[in-house]
Amino acid sequence: MNVREDRLRRIALGFSRIGIALRGLAWKRAAAEGVTPTQGEILQQLADSPAPLRLGAVAGALSISAPTASDAVSSLVKKGLAAKLAQDDKRAVTIRLTAAGEDLIARTRYWPRLLEEAAGTLSEQEQAATLRALTKIIASLQDEGAIFPQRLCVSCRHFRPFAHGDRPEPHHCALIDRAYGDLGLQLSCPDHEQAEPDQQKLQRQRFDAIQST
After folding, report:
1. Which of 60, 89, 112 finishes a domain?
2. Residues 127 and 73 in one domain
3. For every one of its 213 residues, what pLDDT tens digit does the chain have, with 9 covering 90 and above?
């Protein structure tokens, strides 16, 4: 194993260790509230979404099959934690949290707080570098079809990477007409609008090619 392979293996191992810890916490918190980890993850997805989600989006976000997602959502509906909303197309159903579901999420937001506290041990420069690295890793995983598309800056039609050159806040959001740095990079932006493939490609190339200072 060469130096690069060893370095990449150690990075991957670090992410794996974090994933194991989070899954363990999810099991404990879910069991205490009478829901399964999958049901808990669905509730979290609904809480994080700016609008009700379709069943296919729920399944894709969690990398589970549509039948598994449907069974989990049906259980949540029976427990009064989620509600199904019929659309004009009766075959399309969206899901939203109920008040009881929102209360449960508020009580069980332990692992996000735990991660926030851990991230708080980083300096601002380290936080910016982490957000930039996570953006690139998540975008790469999306390219491979390993995870459902996320609402990233680099895939948004309003994103202008390094529009301001080497200034401390080099990026620009055309939606709010504001410059920002890597600390402002969004991983799940409620105002995200998917860019066309050609624009995404150019944005990714520029974002990946230029290193922030």
Report:
1. 112
2. no
3. 789 999 999 999 999 888 878 777 777 777 888 898 889 889 988 988 888 999 888 888 888 888 999 999 999 999 999 999 876 666 678 999 999 999 988 877 666 677 888 999 999 999 999 999 999 999 999 998 888 888 999 999 999 999 998 899 999 999 999 999 999 999 989 899 999 999 999 999 999 987 655
List, in sequence order, every residue forming a beta bridge with 194; answer none if it has no partner.
Answer: 156
- Evaluated on CA atoms 2, 128, 17, 19, the torsion sign reads negative
| pTM, to two decimals | 0.75
Cα 155 off chain centre by: 13
Burial 183-212 (b: 16+ CB within 10 A, else e): bebbeebeebeebeeeebeebbeebeeeeb
CA distances for 176 relative to 67, 192, 199, angstroms: 40, 12, 19
- Split into its structural domains, the chain has a count of 2
Residue 117 lies in a domain: no
Q: Which of 48, 35, 32 lies closest to 81 in space, CA to CA?
A: 35
Q: Which of 51, 78, 112 is where one domain is finished?
A: 112
